[in-house]
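[Automated response] Your request has been received and processed.

Submitted sequence:
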Amino acid sequence: MEVLRIEHLTKIYGKGENEVKALDNVSFTIEQGEFVAIIGPSGSGKSTLLHMLGGVDKPTRGKVFVGGQDVYAQNEEQLAVFRRRKVGLIYQFYNLIPVLNAEENITLP
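Generated structure:
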């Protein structure tokens, strides 16, 4: 059973001479029970890919399907519910505000 399908995923930052392709036409499928590792050097697009899989950052082109559902065909409210119920992200740089305590950092968003 297909858990995740990525079709022609592309993410471009900037325009013109400042354009950077963080992802360029990435496609793959992950089936239930498969174990997958995303590896590569710094700047290769790993975090960008994970942000798009988790519904945090929208692709320039392409589609992300989780459980057969097109993640980016949802409106912002549906996308928020998707992130809350289906996705768990742990950030490498968690960007806590040092002058706030743990509860204040959690409730700030």
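Summary generated for your ticket: The chain has one domain: 2-107. The longest strand covers residues 2-13.
If you did not submit this request, please reply to this message.
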